[in-house]
Design brief:
The structure holds 2 protein chains of 2 kinds. The C terminus of chain A is likely disordered. In chain A, helix 8 runs antiparallel to helix 11. Helices cover about 80% and strands about 0% of the residues of chain A. Chain A is an all-alpha fold. By secondary structure, chain B is of the alpha/beta class. Chain B has 2 domains: about 140 residues, Periplasmic binding protein-like II (D-Maltodextrin-Binding Protein, domain 2), CATH 3.40.190; about 100 residues, Periplasmic binding protein-like II (D-Maltodextrin-Binding Protein, domain 2), CATH 3.40.190. Helices cover about 40% and strands about 20% of the residues of chain B. Chain B contains 11 helices and 12 strands. In chain B, strands 2-1-3-12-4 form a 5-stranded mixed β-sheet, with helices on both faces. In chain B, strand 9 and strand 10 form a beta hairpin. The chains are: A mainly alpha, B alpha/beta.
């Protein structure tokens, strides 16, 4: 069965995915909202930038993060000046990497949801004298709920499935940066196939459950959505 | 991933028209990357055979070879893996020999960090020490052994960061993210001189010798280039290169 080491990796992974998802909602919602509303020429470049992790190999992201967040890199110098030290080999560093890596999985569903709402409900709310914040929280958020659910599930699941970035900037430290995917890799490399099987089967079951939930919630939306 | 890259290279070689002189596909331990590139170039010039190299951790190569990877020669980072492959009938019996004995260095990318006797390990003043994963990499296991001998393993443990192989351990130190780390001497020397930073060349008596063995795999049986490469690795010319990179032999 699962060793203490493996359980620690599972717990760490869940913690990483939760923190990352919360941060992604905070960072991703304004970006998605802006992308859905703006007519600026910056829309295309920013959209492309957000989508980059979809096509870049995780090793590229991990390698650049290692260099940029290192003591000689610009972000590393900034974090050092702020008294935070450097980010590689820390939980915080993994969170930063995961937020970048999973960004499109949260921003794109939210942007689609905001796009689908259109101008009309907001204009109606405005004629009823709802302020911009009021409009956002009482009109946009409820209407975009399915988008938020999809974004949350995808962001969380994608972070759980992250491997390359963590491998490059993590340093494989128990309880800090040794997540499940890295633990599985270690087991496979060390030819400990039994332990690898337990964790891998767990990941498989988890991923299936997540996608099942996603598809089930998608069909629920269609039933109640009326469109 | 390695499979894909390999298959791609293989198809590319087919499209380019298979060479008349033989090709040999070689799995090379990550620590031996630099010397092997030099040796392979000389090998090709001297014999006309071509050595196609893939670099990685010995453990991964073992698993891949067991599952049918089409490598013909293995240059391992240890002596256990080739012995094991021979017991399991995956290599040609009697072809195994030690091509290099690895040496460790405690290295920092910055000058003046590591003193000539490695006292810095005991003194502290650093946040991270990079090593290769001791479970997977012989150089990592040797590094842990050295720290045990020096009685610092408990003090250093909270500061350890692990690369999946010695190449990644080197990368952690080279990028400055770890102030120091145990790397293969071959990674930081060229022509017998340190390429940069500061280092303590760990005395060989502080750890079990890192004997690196080579073997012809069953896939390479009868391939003239495989045999030629093994002979070439034993030649004085190759040995001079191997020594220049900081290995004993």
């Amino acid at each position: 069965m699962l060793t203490d080491e493996a359980l620690a990796a599972v717990w760490l992974t869940l913690r990483l995915a939760s923190v990352t998802t919360i941060l992604l909602f905070l960072v991703g919602t304004p970006i998605a909202w802006w992308l859905a509303r703006t007519r600026s020429w910056l829309k295309a470049p920013v959209g492309a930038l957000v989508a980059l992790p979809l096509v870049l190999p995780p090793t590229v992201i991990g390698f650049y993060l290692l260099v940029v967040m290192g003591p000689q890199g610009p972000i590393g110098q900034l974090t050092q000046a702020l008294g935070l030290g450097v980010l590689p080999f820390t939980f915080r560093g993994l969170v930063v990497g995961s937020v970048i890596y999973s960004m499109p999985f949260v921003v794109q569903p939210l942007q689609n949801a905001f796009d689908a709402i259109g101008e009309r409900p907001l204009e109606v709310a405005a004629t009823l004298r709802a302020g911009p914040w009021d409009r956002f929280f009482t009109v946009v958020l409820p209407l975009a709920r399915p988008g938020f659910i999809t974004a949350g599930i995808l962001g969380f699941a994608h972070t759980v499935g992250e491997f390359g970035v963590v491998l490059m900037i993590g340093g494989n430290i128990p309880d800090k940066t040794r997540v499940v995917s890295v633990q599985i890799y270690d087991h496979v490399e060390a030819l400990e196939y039994t332990q690898a099987h337990w964790l891998s089967a767990g990941m498989l079951a988890f991923s299936f459950a997540v996608l099942l939930a996603l598809h089930a919630s998608g069909s629920g939306k269609r039933k109640s959505g009326g469109k | 991933m390695h499979h894909c890259r390999f298959i791609f290279a293989y198809i590319a070689s087919l499209l380019a028209g298979a060479a008349s002189a033989a090709d040999v596909r070689v799995a090379v331990a990550a620590n031996f990357t630099a010397p092997m590139q030099a040796i392979a170039a000389a090998f090709e010039k001297d014999t006309g055979h071509k050595a196609r190299l893939a670099f990685g951790s010995t453990g991964k190569f073992y698993a891949q070879i067991r599952h049918g990877a089409p490598f013909q020669v293995l240059l391992a980072a240890d002596d256990e893996t080739p012995a094991r492959l021979e017991r399991e009938g995956m290599s040609v019996p009697g072809t195994c020999f030690t091509y290099a004995v690895g040496r460790l260095a405690l290295w920092s990318a910055q000058a003046g960090v590591v003193d000539a006797r490695g006292e810095v390990l005991k003194q502290g003043g650093y946040k991270h020490v990079a090593i290769a994963n001791p479970k997977l990499a012989p150089y990592g296991a040797a590094a842990v052994e050295v720290m045990q001998r020096l009685g610092v393993v408990e003090a250093v443990r909270p500061k350890l960061v692990q690369g999946e192989n010695i190449a990644q351990a080197w990368q952690f130190v080279a990028s400055g993210n770890a102030e120091l780390g145990f790397v293969a001497l071959s990674q930081v020397t060229q022509d017998g001189k340190l390429t940069g930073g500061s280092a303590w060349i760990v005395p060989a008596h502080l750890h079990t010798p890192i004997r690196q063995d080579a073997a012809i795999l069953t896939n390479g049986r009868g391939n003239p280039a495989a045999g030629a490469l093994m002979d070439y690795l034993r030649s004085d010319k190759a040995k001079a290169v191997i020594r220049a990179y900081g290995y004993d032999i």
